């Protein structure tokens, strides 16, 4: 059985923490960024990205993220953890 590829970080290299400590690029807080880096199992990383999409939806103003993250996944040859 082939090993699952690592899920790319949800970070899209904007890294400006405003909006009550949330990045304006990906919506993660600094503790969330640290938490994602600590996740080792692809299924945990996928669940984190799905949770993050819900967070972005609740907060609003993150419509640009999906396109940027899909490009990042394609570049790394990884299937995104959500349906586009």
TrEMBL record:
A matching Pfam family: DUF1289
Superkingdom of the source species: Bacteria
Alphabetical list of InterPro entries matching this protein: DUF1289
Protein name: DUF1289 domain-containing protein
Biological source species: Histidinibacterium aquaticum
Species lineage: Bacteria, Pseudomonadati, Pseudomonadota, Alphaproteobacteria, Rhodobacterales
